[in-house]
Each structure stands twice: as structure tokens, then as C-alpha cells.
Amino acid sequence: MTALSFPLRSVFLGLPLEGDAKKQFRMLQDALKPFENILRFQSPETPHLTLQFWPTLMEIEYGQIEKQIPLIAEKHESFSLKIEGVEFFGKHGDDHVMHLSVPFSEPLARLRKSCPWPLDRPFHPHITLARIDHPQRFVREKKKVLKALGSVSFEMPVNLLRLYGNVAGKSQTPIADFPLDAAAMSH
User: Fold this and answer.
1) φ/ψ of residue 150, rounded to 5
2) What is the Cα gyration radius of the chain?
3) What is the mean pLDDT of residues 147-162?
4) What is the rounded CA–CA span in Å between residue 109 and residue 169?
5) Residue 26: inside a domain, yes or no?
6) End-to-end CA distance of the chain, in Å?
7) In whole angstroms, what is the distance from residue 27 CA to residue 65 CA?
8) pTM (2 decimals)?
9) What contacts 176, CB < 8 A, 6 or more positions away?
10) What is the pLDDT of residues 76-89, one digit of tens each?
């Protein structure tokens, strides 16, 4: 593992898309290739759903967080999330982010609620597909983009928490994995 240098920037706790879910994510991005002149794609190597984000962490804060995550993971068992549809962040006609929708999930809500860190905005679970670099041009192409994506619906297994950060100048670098406890419900 790469040595971490502090302050650590853009650190987040996420649920990674793995296996078939990651393949589905990549297929959706491939369908968007004709629009890459107006979109900036989320890295196909690290698709994820963010539970918590910290812009900057000092070493002492990082150490405390790193100790708390396994305690969260052991309270939850693996579950499956439904990914359904595509939505946008921004005002109509001024969309900035295209993301996969995550309908309400009781296990996900319980997992987020067990995180002891405050959020700076309401939790809106989503998986970023692409950032929209040219909102005005995107408005003209939006119907074609949605048609290219087709009907989006797949399952995402959730069996671990992953801590990511900007390590050695590379953003969204996986730092550590914390498996969910399969026996959590029997405790």
C-alpha cells in the first residue's frame, strides 16, 4: 500500500460496485461514448456510492475514522441494492451531474444512519456516471443520451465498505476495505 501523506484530501467512505454491477456501469458508460465531448466520465475503475465525504483529514482524524469503520461494518450484513434509472443534479436546463438512481433501501438507510459523522447536506444515495461539462450543449442532446442508456435496472451487491482518498495525486484511490459482517443479524 502507498504511504499516506497528511493532510489527506478528498477522503470518502463508499460502497464499491464490483463484479456484474461494475460491468453494468461500464456498459452504460460505453453507451455514452458518443457524447464524451460534453461529458466527463466517473472513473470506470472506481464506481461507488458515497456514504460520507471529508474534504480534508489530518492524521489524528483519519486514525479515529479508520477505527470507527470496522465497528460500523460489523453491525451490518451484506445486502443487495436496486439501481434503477438515471437522474441529474442541477436545475432543469442546467444539469451538472448524471447519476444512477438508488431507490429507498432499508438496509442502506440503516447503514448510513450508523455512521457517526454529520452530513453537510441530506443523504441522497446515487452513483455518479458522468459530470456534464457543457450543460447548454447537453440540453440539446439529453433525449439522445437517455435513449442511448435505455432502461437502467440492475442489482448491486453490498458486502463491504471501502475508504478512498486522494493518494499521491490520484483521486478516488482505494485505501482500505472493511467487509460487512455476514453474521451481523444473528448477534
Assistant:
1) 70, -155
2) 17
3) 97
4) 32
5) yes
6) 33
7) 34
8) 0.93
9) 66, 69, 162, 163
10) 999 999 999 999 99
